[in-house]
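Q: For a teaching session next week I want to show students how multiple molecules come together into a single three-dimensional assembly. I've collected the sequence lines for a complex. Could you give me the predicted structure tokens for the whole thing so I can convert them for display?
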Amino acid sequence: MRADLEIIQQWVKPGHHVLDLGCGDGTLLDFLQRERNASGYGLEINPDHITTCMSRGVSVIEQNLDTQGLDNFEDNSFDIVLMTQALQAVRRPDKVLDEMLRLGDEGIVTFPNFAHWRLRWGLALSGRMPESEALPYKWYNTPNIRLCTFQDFEALCRQKGIRIKSRRVVDGQHQNSWLARLWPNLLGEIAIYRITRENRS
Amino acid sequence: MPDSLPADSVGVVTPQTYHFETPIELACGHTLDSYDLVVETYGELNADRSNAVLICHALSGHHHAAGYHSMDDRKPGWWDTCIGPGKPVDTNRFFVVSLNNLGGCHGSTGPNSINPATGKPYGPDFPVITVGDWVKSQALLADRLGIDCWAAVVGGSLGGMQALQWSLDYPDRLKHSVAIASSPRLTAQNIAFNEVARQAITSDREFHEGRYYDFDTLPRRGLMLARMVGHITYLSDASMGEKFGRELRDQAYKFGYDAEFQVESYLRYQGERFSEVFDANTYLLMTRALDYFDPAYEFGGDLSKALARASCEFLVLSFSTDWRFTPARSEEMVNAMIAARKKVSYAEIDAPWGHDAFLIPTPRYTDIFTAYMDRVAREAGT
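A: Of course. Below is the structure for the complete assembly, covering every listed component.
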């Protein structure tokens, strides 16, 4: 099993009601439905992904976070709101984080670390915007318009009064790596954060 | 006329009439002591009767949804694009049931049927039928066909309203409800258009208070106008623009009021043709059924409360240029389903054809509809 799914499923309790922002082809929700008896919805805008979700029985809603927001969802209507590998692609990640914790008790966010040593190295040596397996785009066509580092994200959480309950760092293949744990902002490629509001237990 | 039947056609089909002797109580308080429903079926019911799909028609639809009645037919059934072997509603896997609704004018009991009490056509004495009444009669038809539970109830526009109503009235008798280009209730604008249509009909001198059958005439003019205004709401500005633009039938303006623009002559032709084949009283009845549909009404306007009793899964589809039932109307349904924690999938399909897009196969529409119905079939064990 992919390490990130393994980690995320540990945080989802049986029967949890889950919202997955940018659910892709529904792999994660399908997995949580089967392994955790979770219910809930995925939001997606990619037509092929939406069709795949429908085909595998994942409830998917075509909804664009940037243009439509999440106003149609009620406060505290989910146990967990997930956002895997999509935070860097929305126009206002800060507002999406607020919305995640308005809708759910807990949020789980994963994103690529722009301070990974290979990206730093590439930028330093070539003077060009780095590309990697996790970020395989050119600067002008990338959907990843809000790239940040683990430290950036954690600073934003502090500023917003968002408490980080756990953080797990994996490499590009979503594998655990002791090096990444040791020096995450330099050696970790993808982080999985479990967040909640400061005043929540 | 097809010289030979296309491979993905259900072929030549024959409608069947089911007669019901048990009185049906209607929402308006009236009772119909007996009635007929005209039905077409495509495909085979499997051994455990789990693969039945009900198709619900819209305002001017009927039982003839797919295939041909004879090799001389010019056109196949109204939803032939989506029903047939290998099509989204795949007749190799599903047993498809399509009926003409009560109050219709294509063979099921309606205003132009003979009222057994008088020996004359019902006309205006035919009771106003609601979406709930249709669903009730469809459930009785399911009983007759030996179908305890539909794999899916599917409909576009007014048909989608029936699919929604099914999930509320008979939650245990369907696994999936598919509402395409539909709405949980009409807006004031929708009702206003219906009212213009009704006024056109009832103000026709040949209408005779709905008893035109007795005068051996038809309110053709009124029905034609009703259809013309309705037809405009089924298309989009862009699709009308592309089809007709400002094209003239002749080279130059004639400085008169005949049909000079292509769009005028098209609308007149559509209206005239329709007025020959459709019953004006049925048109009144269907538009009223649309106006009255509002399952949230008895729950203080809260559709999510109405949906509490639903247990099926939902597929809701809308079309980007549909201004009759806009994507926002579909999203209203979807949001209520989300609030009620029902399983629902939703997509807004980019298509230029306005409300009519639900009848026209576009790649994405076909893909989604096929993918969803494929899962319905897999769950039904076919």
